[in-house]
Amino acid sequence: MSIETKIVGTVYEVSELRTTKSGDHVCNVTVPVDDGFGDKKKTTYYEVTIFGKSAEAASKYLERGTFFSAVGRPTARAYQSTKGELIAKVGITAKSWEMYGKRQAKADAVPDFQKTEAWTPPTYDDFGF
Asked: Quick check: pTM over 0.70?
C-alpha cells in the first residue's frame, strides 16, 4: 500500500536544475500552504522534489507566483544546521505535477467571462418554429 499526497499552492521558490552522480536531473520547488486564519494563521513550506525530464521542465517553466500542484510520496527529514539549530523539512517526491499559470494582480483578478458583454438567451423565434 502506498500513500500519496497532493500539494496545491503558489510557487515560492524554484531551485536550479541539478544532476546527481548517476546522471538524473533534480529540481526542488518550495510551496507555502496556509492553515487557519487571523492570529492563528500558520504557514508550512513544503519542498517538492522532482526528478528526470520532468525536473528539466519544472526548472524551465516554473517561477515564483505560478499556481502549481504536485502528487507524490510524502517525505520528512531533520538535520542540524551549521549554526547548531535543528531543522525539520516536510515535502513530497513528486510522481506528477501540473502548472496552472501565473497569479494575477488584484486589479486583473476579474475573470475574462465577466468582462465581456452580457449573453442573452435565444428566443423561440431564433429556432424557426
From this structure: yes
